[in-house]
Amino acid sequence: MKKNLILVSFIVLLLLPLAYAGVNQITETTTAQLYVTLMSQDPDPVEPGQIVNVKFKIENEGQQTSEDVIVKILPQYPFKIYGDKAEKNIGKLRAVATGADAVIVEFKLKVDENAVEEDTELELQILMEGGAISYTNDEFLINIQTHDAVLDITSITLTPEQIAPGETAEVSIMVKNLADSLLKDIKFKLDFDSTTLPLAPYQSSSERRISQLQSGYQNSLAFGIVADPEAAPGLYKIPLTITYNDEQGSAYSIEDILAITVGDMPKLRVYIKKSDVLQKNKAGKVTIEIANAGSSDIKFLELTLLPSDDYQLVSTTDYFYLGDVDSDDTESEEIDLFINKKVETLHLPIKLKYTDANNKPFQQQFDLELELYSSSQLKKFGLLEKSKAGTYFFIFILIIVGIYLYRRRKKDPENFSKDLRRWRNKIPLLKSKKK
Question: 79: closest CA among 40, 119, 127, 39?
Fold first, then answer.
């Protein structure tokens, strides 16, 4: 009997764990078992300041709930409810409602404009019989990020503003990180491969790099450029490519054009080429010549003679259009003037308007000077013939005396002969007195 009691007790001890397990299984299968999944966010990623729709899938792998289930969103910065309710009643959940039978709950939220670009937690709570289930441990993360991690080209500076053929210049490119996160491995590349491009890198590579750029910061890179000595003036375009990565490893690329102006500053020389008026109070022609001593052509040249107290304009106009003047070439204009009295040095103020080969406008004023001379100076220089009035007067006197002698001889030949002999006798005496 005692042995049977021991055997029964042993069997009971063996069956107790099985009985407890059975009771626990029944308990589990007679209650709801909920699983919540973040199905999607739209858009993904969402930018700061945008509206995002988030969808949750709620599955029940247990028994039907006896009461309605409440799904409650707990928005914290940078999220807030936007035109929606924070609580959604999804009713009673059926037993084993999974897959296509699961319940989908959607919330509309707005992301703050100053939100940081990162995966941000969205908290959720399920209210049902017996209590609440909270998801507050980074279980639902919303991806906040600017779609284009913006790297802005804030300025491009060329020093000098245009490159003369054969000369060099420096191009400085300033960029700023407008994204909310760090940008890395920023690479700049200028494409000089075009055969028609008369430009090349100078003392630098065509590629430069910035290792990283913090949010809100800016940095610059400089490239050296040289123009071909035979480069024609004009605007040339160099393709610029900038590539970089954000903190999450996403790659971005910017395509732009760098415009370089090739051309030399115009070099005009203006002077009085010739003049046939060299004295004051005289009229004559003055020829003004303009020489293009630079390597660049000029176009649409206009000459205007400005007013002055030194002269009066005899020509019909003070405006002259000369047109294009090629490099190493000249253009001239003849002007009729009357030089006023008391002018020792003639001043001719003129104004020139024109454009260079790249249609950049220029305007210059010049004060041309012409030295004036007296009659004696001009005779000395051989520019004015000496007066023959004295010679003419002497010849005139001789003619008068000849006529007088001729008439007297004809009228009284005898007395004329006596007078002539008497004059001849007096001439030697006069000569001796002079000696």
Answer: 119
